[in-house]
Design brief:
CATH class of the largest domain: Alpha Beta
CATH architecture of the largest domain: 3-Layer(aba) Sandwich
CATH superfamily of the largest domain: CoaB-like
Number of strands: 19
Number of helices: 13
Distance between the termini: 44 Å
Strand order of the largest sheet: 12-11-8-13-16-17-18-19
């Protein structure tokens, strides 16, 4: 596929080198067109080296090839990143002062803008009007991410991570993109993996969780426009790029991290497999196995119910109405007292969370696998929702449901 990658004059231009690498490694032919201002941040030599193609921002270079017409005509996709306030304004008003804006006017394929600028610039009515104009003409405009900006300021205006822009671009070409990002501007905290409770310096009580589902949720939330914070217990897979990672090991450490992270979160998803019990005492030295001694007895004590505590704190902080969506996960097995859904419904009542994602687990189910099958239960009593497939597909269904729940109530103040 032939891609034109336009680079705007913002400090986030350095991130676009990683996006270019993603495109080229996927086998696409990329022509980079930087604005003159952007070359103050990243030089043309970098773009030529990474793309393997000559780079220019002038309509007077290679005039015999009529580049200001040819590039837009031939492109299967045009991606603009970072799309600064200035560049959005020029595109919306049809200006043609350089090679990039000329190419945009000649575009016949899909066009994707990935904005990046200061919060006040993004929220200014002029910028929002330009975005609406571009969208009304068929261009796709991503919502910027929220987080640390230039200097000490923080807020919406960060360039989405290169992985997220790449995924959005591929979805746009495939005709599967929905750029009304359901979690745009939201802060989402997700716990993932399995906690480990130490017995002695070398042994611990743990579980089979691989962290794959939690990582897939983090990717789906990131791609839905959220700023994602991942509370990572033991995981067999690396965390995704573009998310904040907070490492934890034990249930008590996860509780501390979750309570702190929830303070500014719009959504909390507790997908980690948290140990229900921990040893009452932890030996400072390795517990020895000796023939002349009785078998050791390990006394267990209950770990705190993190999910229930998050709900109680949320409710006490916002007694007049829900200000935060809390999602629990339940790994259940049936027994003589009831089937999986019966146990899950009882857990939903006890925990008081808004949504509960239910897995039927076993030695060869869910843990460590690449596929999953879940039922999403809602405290509101709505019909259970089933989702199955790869953990990526299940995560997309869960994040979509969360977006629906958020948009059905008043937003956070």
């Amino acid at each position: 596929m032939r891609i034109v990658l336009g680079v705007g004059g913002g400090i986030a231009a350095y991130k676009v080198a990683s996006l270019l690498r993603l495109f080229t490694e996927a086998g696409h032919d990329v022509t980079v067109i930087p604005t003159e201002a952007s070359t103050r941040f990243v030089g043309t030599a970098t773009w030529e080296a990474l793309s393997g193609n000559p780079v220019s921002n002038s309509v007077f270079d290679d005039v015999h090839q009529v580049n200001h017409v040819r590039l837009g005509h031939e492109a299967d996709l045009i991606v603009i990143a970072p799309a600064t306030a200035d560049l959005l304004a020029k595109a919306a008003t049809g200006q043609a002062g350089d090679l990039l804006t000329n190419t945009l006017l000649m575009a016949r394929g899909p066009v994707l803008f990935a904005p990046a600028m200061h919060t006040e610039m993004w929220q200014h009515p002029a910028t929002q009007a330009n975005v609406e104009t571009l969208r009304s003409r068929g261009s796709a405009v991503l919502e910027p991410a929220s987080g640390r900006l230039t200097g000490a300021d923080s807020g919406p205006g960060r360039l989405p991570e290169p992985d997220a822009i790449f995924d959005a671009a591929m979805a746009l070409v495939d005709g599967q993109a929905d750029f009304q990002l359901p979690l745009a501007g939201r802060i989402v905290t997700i716990s993932a993996g399995g906690t480990r409770e130490p017995l002695d310096p070398v042994r611990f009580l743990g579980n089979r969780s691989s962290g794959k589902q939690g990582v897939a949720l983090a990717v789906a939330a990131r791609n839905a426009g959220a700023t994602v914070r991942l509370l990572a217990a033991h995981m067999d897979v690396p965390p995704p790029s573009g998310v904040e990672v907070v490492p934890v090991e034990t249930a008590l450490q996860l509780r501390e991290a979750a309570l702190a992270a929830a303070a500014d979160s719009d959504v909390v998803i507790m997908s980690a497999a948290v140990a229900d019990f921990r040893p009452a005492a932890v030996s400072d030295t390795k517990i020895k196995k000796r023939d002349d001694r009785d078998d050791p007895v390990i006394t267990l004590v209950r770990n705190p119910d993190i999910l229930h505590e998050l709900v109680e704190r949320r409710n006490s902080a916002a007694p007049g109405g829900r200000q935060q969506l809390i999602v629990g996960f339940a790994a259940e097995t049936g027994d003589s007292d009831g089937d999986v859904l019966a146990h899950a419904r009882a857990k939903l009542q006890r925990k008081g969370c808004d949504l509960l994602v239910v897995n039927h687990v076993g030695t060869d189910k869910v843990f460590g696998q690449d596929t999953n099958s879940v039922v999403i239960l809602a405290r509101s009593g709505s019909e259970p929702q089933e989702a199955s497939g790869t953990k990526t597909e299940v995560s997309a269904a869960v994040i979509s449901r969360i977006g629906h729940e958020l948009n059905s109530v008043s937003p956070r103040a």
